[in-house]
Write a structure and sequence with these properties.
- With 148 residues, the chain is mostly helical.
- It has 2 domains: 3-73, Arc Repressor Mutant, subunit A; 92-148, no CATH class.
- The chain has 7 helices and 2 strands; from the N terminus they run ααααββααα.
- It has helices at residues 3-8, 12-24, 29-36, 44-56, 77-89, 97-107, 112-126, and strands at residues 60-65, 68-73.
- Helix 2 crosses helix 4 (44-56) and helix 3 crosses helix 4 (44-56).
């Protein structure tokens, strides 16, 4: 199973657990429960179920240390974020991708460094920009054909 495929089918709850695994590098169910207790009211059985699903999906690896299990990420956070972004953008008409990115930027708190990086990416992207982005929808999925 490719890394892209693995990342695409995890739930929002599993993402929360993966964020802990990425932040800690290695974790236990007890530690995940304690960290996520700030945000959720999940019982330890819920966390153990989510960890087990992530192991089954090959997102997390596990090793036994005495009578407890330690979990560690098998998938890089950056690659997972890239896949998530790609997945989001495939859900909208390609003509509307610019508006989606604009909305994300407008709604985000960004540092000066973030803005500098975005400006550099946009400057580079301008080199391959097109006059009009073609629609990638099948008939009936958007209203591009109505716009003249």
């Amino acid at each position: 199973m490719s890394e892209k495929k693995k990342t695409r089918n995890i739930t929002d709850a599993e993402w929360e657990v993966m964020r802990v695994a990425w932040a800690t590098g290695e974790t236990t169910s007890k530690e995940v429960t304690a960290i996520l207790n700030e945000k959720t009211e999940w019982k330890s059985t819920t966390v153990k179920t989510l960890l087990s699903r992530l192991v089954d999906k090959e997102m997390l690896g596990t090793k036994k240390s005495g009578n407890k299990f330690t979990y560690f990420p098998l998938v890089a956070e950056r690659q997972s974020i890239d896949v998530l972004a790609e997945e989001l953008l495939t859900k909208v008409c390609s003509k509307k991708v610019g508006k989606v990115l604009e909305s994300i930027i407008q709604e985000s708190v960004l540092s000066f460094t973030d803005i500098d990086q975005l400006e550099a990416v946009l400057k580079e992207k301008r080199q391959s920009a097109v006059e009009t982005v073609p629609c990638n929808c099948i008939p009936g999925q958007c209203q591009c054909h109505l716009i003249r």
